[in-house]
Amino acid sequence: MQEMMKNRAYALLENGTVDRVLGWTRGEFAYDMTPAVFRNADEVKNGFVYNDFCAANLSKYLVKECRAGGKILVFLKPCDTYSFNQLLAEHRIKRDMIYVVGIECFGKADVEKIKEMGIEGITGITAKDGIYTVSTIYGDKAIKPADVMAERCLACKSKKHVVYDELIGNEGEVVEDCNRFDMVAKLEAMTPDERYEFWRGELSRCIRCNACRNICPACTCEQCIFDNPNSGVSQKAAVNSFEENMFHIIRAFHVAGRCTDCGECSRVCPQNIPLHLLNRKFIKDVNTFYGDYQAGEDPTAKPPLGKYEKNDIEPGEAGGAKE
Amino acid sequence: MNTETLIPYAGIVTEITQQTPDVKTFRVEAPGGGKLFEHKPGQCAMLSVPGISEAMISITSSPTNTEYMEFSVKKCGCLTEWLHSMEVGQMITVRGPYGRHFPVYDELLGKDLLIIAGGIGLAPVRSVINYVRDNRDKFGSVDIVYGSRSKDDLVYYKEIVEEWMTTPGFNVHLTIDNPQEGWDGHVGFVPNFVKELNPDLKKTVLMCGPPIMIKFTLGGLMELGFKKEQVYTTMELRMKCGIGKCGRCNIGNKYVCKDGPVFRFDELDELPNEY
Amino acid sequence: MQDVKEFRPTIVAFCCNWCSYAGADLAGSSRLVYPADVKIIRVPCSCRVNPLFILRAFQRGADGVIMAGCHPGDCHYTSGNYFARRRMTLLFSMLDYLGIERERTRVEWISAAEGAKFAKTMNEFVATVTALGENKRLEDLRCKK
Amino acid sequence: MKKLSLAKLNDFFAAIAAKQALYLPVNNKVGKADFTKWTAGTEMSKALNTVRSAKDFFFPQTENLMDFKMEGKNIEVIDSREECEDFVVFGVRACDAASFAILDSVYLVDPVDSYYKNRREHGTVVTMACGKPAETCFCGTFGIDAANPAGDVTVWEVADGYMLRANTEKGEALLAATADLLEAGDEKAVEAAQAKTREIMAKLPLAGLTFDGVGVGKTKELFDRPEWKTLSESCLGCGTCTFVCPTCQCYDVRDFDTGNGIKRFRCWDSCMYSDFTLMAHGNSRNSQVERFRQRFMHKLVYYPDRNNGTFGCVGCGRCLARCPISMNIVKVAKTLGGNK
Lengths: 323, 275, 145, 340
Description:
By secondary structure, chain A is α/β, with parallel strands linked by helices. Chain A has helices spanning 2-14, 41-47, 61-68, 78-89, 111-116, 151-154, 182-188, 192-203, 211-215, 241-254, 264-268, 276-290, and strands at 20-25, 34-38, 72-76, 98-103, 122-128, 131-136, 139-143, 166-168. In chain C, strands 2-1-3-4 form a four-stranded parallel beta sheet, sandwiched between helices. Chain C has a single domain (11-140), classed as Rossmann fold (3-Layer(aba) Sandwich). By secondary structure, chain D is an alpha+beta fold. Chain D has two domains: 2-55 and 81-203, no CATH class; 219-337, no CATH class. Chain D contains eleven helices and 14 strands. The relative contact order of chain D is 0.15. The interface between B and D is large, with 44 and 53 residues.
């Protein structure tokens, strides 16, 4: 895969189709690849890396890159293409400035899960024949990719690219039975007290680093309401439980109907808060109340909070939760 | 518990003077009368209206004034707008004094001074000017070059004309950017005016004003043959603590609030160009 | 002996200018009784109510928040209340999902002619919130006296 | 050197907690360690380190500084400081223990920060030598010995219990107060544990890493380097690195109107945030390149300049593990220092 991607990057840089390539560059270890822009074939040759640990959704960088001018090649996984479409729908990026190369995805690995298996002192990870060989200072360990697959990939909603100029690898299908709402349903089935305890336990760990917001491809406001001193709600640190709740409720609400469920918020959270469960609640509610809607699937579709039906459900009737 | 410098004093605003359309001078006294604390020329204080914000403002009154402190504030942000809407008798909070002062107690003693200011930039050096007036025998001649956008934008105009211009050994040169009715003084930008005046190279320069003025005036002074060791300026950046801890007002390894705001230009040369 | 006070809730009611606020007015001028615990905030349209308003009301000490607007179809601005309805549906569902008592939030459509409905709704809502007790799950301790 | 047998560990915690609050790393619901207050039955985490650093104890994420009562034109300033109660933090690693010295050099220099000082005076730090450092560890770069941490008391984990050594008066007092649970210990066991730790440290990928290319007096050399642009290109401008960092000490001071008075509080701030240096008339660090450069220049050059060459980093590796886009101080120092 990496070689095919590099070859396409060379070719498109050479023939002038694009003048920059947005991809990943190698890290200090085997699992910490950083998103990077490559400006010529040499940079691609020396720095470009792609493997199962290249998890970042690159679509948000395009907002910044579109302002820099020129044409940029971006490699997008299926789930990233939904974010891309949503950004297009919101006029945050310009389609003609971007050359999208869709890449087939088999699910990303989560290094945290490797470490949770008790594997320490990792010096290298190689993938071959469907097995990861993890080298450590204590010896090599073989693990199955399925055992360390990222949580969001286990509930992958679609292996289909909704937009691309060309594709590397095979096109996949929308996963109908992805079960991504299972946990939401489980929470809904709990009593309010249990739910309250659950969320306090999660949100109280928040350190308000804004990683979830800043990585989110739906959070593209020029100035976030929480950064705006004139909004009356700006806050740098959650002083108490109220502010923790407020930040996460409002952030989830602001992306409601726009969140494509790419799962980046939960991936980057340094405190492992399952933030996607907030977004998925809204997605599930939208589906239940207003009909199935997948943000990013169709960039011309009207967002659910930007339209209405005369016989919409009343707030009082929209139970969902059991006592 | 010992004293804590982050905790301010409450002071009463006893007089508000409209200096220019967007600059007001606030006289602040302790609730029981007198000054809230002593300071040295060029030092700053954190002014605040609780619930609004807190900001670093230079103390424009001279330390020789024993009755009150004065702050001149230009309306430009949320705190300053609030201050401008205030009435006499209202309280604000003040903490300080912060930062390095102009070296009036040692290096400037006996020197001929050239004080260059633009716009509201006269506020921090006004404290030096009045200190020198009150200690006239300790300093040489004083040339003041002060410019603003228009006649109406000259702060302390009354004080300049009535007090500074009449002080022996003081030469005040005023300029405005564009010709204006009722103005028969110099017209032109401060950097050019300084060059025209061709000051004596033995003078020590204290300068404050907008960054663009400082840049070109410094260039002009260098052309005339001044050395960077002769030129002092005073800086301003975003500040929260005022005591070199909150970490935002640094230029390279120097904190403006603690190691400044007064810098000599040869010191600034050591720092990265990030201000 | 500790002074045991009867719990009186603080209720914030966002009322649209054209229908519900007039409804409240009518309730008043008709001498219909509803508890003084209800603090009305007049908004130009129910659509003006940002989810943040609801949260901020709780932060500042509200024990219950109600939004009242024109009946669907009767919005002074044609469709504002339809959008507001979707927003509040999702927000209230989210609050419930976080374990915050569902009964603390309510939406009611009250026309300018429905003074009686206004009084009845407020009486009911105050009773419900009084039964729930103080808002603990969305409180900001700094704002407590 | 004292010894605490494994069986008496809980009694030891109970004895400390009977007199003052005791905090130690405990696994949270997602299996990561957090410093948590000990109560009967609390089990100490086996994790190498906590997600948040131990700086929280002395420099909490938010704290109230003072209150204001506003009545008409009057303002009353209310000093709401209170004497802190004694507490013990158990299980601090060598890196975090070293970070306290860095925070001290900011908060305890004139003018002293009384909020910080108060907590520092009332806190007893019990450090624990690392048994199994991870690949993200590079405390050795700064001369910190994971096998011999500082702190008021140092603890080593050995086969059948713990070895304890008091380093300060506070530490002596803590061990004296729990003397009936302790027995005499043998240095040899500690030496064996130390040798094991050092052997692992030497094998880790970042062993031998030096920050020679950066440091005192390099402002001019490093400030305008073109690499800042490429290094910062993918930076999200979030505060993760800052907030998990044990040495990041910047703060913001804000007012909160409670409706019945104003509370002035301070909270952690991040130089990575766009409004960090925002003023009414402009921003001295307008782009992420400048903000990114500020963070690393501060740790790698400015702080050493002001503190006899000590780096503003202790090599705990939290930013290496936590940065959403895996950009970190090691990559920056290596790129700038030229030893790629």
